[in-house]
Design goal:
The protein is α/β, with parallel strands linked by helices. Helices cover 49% and strands 13% of the residues. It contains nine helices and six strands. A six-stranded parallel beta sheet has the order 3-4-2-1-5-6, with helices on both faces. Helix 5 links the parallel strand 3 and strand 4. The longest helix is centred in the first third of the chain and has 22 residues. The chain is globular and about 75 Å long. Its EC number is 2.5.1.-. Its cofactor is Mg(2+). Keywords: Magnesium, Metal-binding, Transferase. GO terms for molecular function: transferase activity.
Length: 259
């Protein structure tokens, strides 16, 4: 068992290490856009013998910390995947509390007034209360000049691509363009203009917690040239030092952008 004195020493050494890590990050090597797949909330709760809702609450609290860390190093855009389209099939006794936790988290981010909130996902699949919370957050923060925070709720990469193609077809049809003409001229830029993140830079770095090394459908189109960082920590246990290590790992890589 660790004594209080040893714990204080360990905490002090960790703080020194974090500061050293932070100073080592060159401003021109900071990712402009970070995407994060928050994973491990349920395992975190179950490992302590608690209801999964405790894990979701702890995970929601971690999001605010994470955004402050990103803001501190100069990140311009963050995309946080809070709920996938697959998650919507979870049992009601888990999904309904999770949706309330997400609504509260979004309201709290809005109240901070430091970041622009942009919903990313199929809002039509969400309960009306959740969708309205996300729309209200976007409206309330639309004039904020700080970091842009994409809140991915009811998000799935395949659904996003399907929605983008559907939007493109409807737009072209409204202009009297035939399907044959569209097939001749459509390119990647046409589709990109109809994504949920249209007009935004693609993520430079995608972080996933809990040891899972897969995207699971996160930003399938946008992450084609992204760098990835997989962390063993469950999301509620994700620390500032873990974040700094992820950014350092990104800064040390030679990006080739597919060449």
């Amino acid at each position: 068992m660790q004594t209080p004195g040893k714990q204080k020493l360990r905490d002090a050494l960790m703080l020194i290490y974090e500061r050293r890590l932070r100073r080592s990050l060159a401003p021109d090597r900071i990712p402009g856009h970070i995407g994060v797949i928050i994973d491990g909330n349920r395992r975190w709760a179950r490992s302590a013998g608690n209801p999964v809702s405790h894990g979701h609450e702890a995970g929601a609290n971690k999001i605010t910390e994470f955004l402050h860390w990103c803001d501190d190093v100069g990140v311009k855009v963050v995309t946080v995947w809070m709920l996938s389209t697959d998650n919507l099939t979870r049992p009601a006794d888990e999904l309904e509390p999770l949706l309330r936790i997400i609504e509260q988290a979004v309201d709290e981010l809005t109240a901070i007034g430091r970041w622009r909130i942009h919903p990313v996902g199929a809002l039509d699949l969400l309960p009306s209360a959740t969708a309205e919370t996300l729309k209200r957050a976007e409206t309330a923060t639309q004039d904020v000049e700080g970091m842009l925070v994409n809140v991915a709720v009811g998000y799935g990469g395949r659904r996003e691509l399907a929605d983008a193609v559907r939007s493109l077809l409807l737009e072209e049809a409204a202009q009297g363009i035939s399907i044959e003409e569209l097939a001749e001229r459509v390119d990647v830029e046409h589709i990109a203009r109809h994504l949920y993140t249209k007009g935004q830079p693609d993520p430079d770095l995608v972080i996933r917690t809990s040891g899972e090394q897969r995207l699971g459908g996160f930003l399938l189109w946008q992450s084609a040239l992204s760098e990835f960082y997989f962390c063993e920590a469950l999301w509620p246990d994700f620390r500032h030092v873990d974040f700094l290590r992820a950014v350092r790992s990104y800064a040390q890589r030679e990006r080739r952008f597919g060449t």
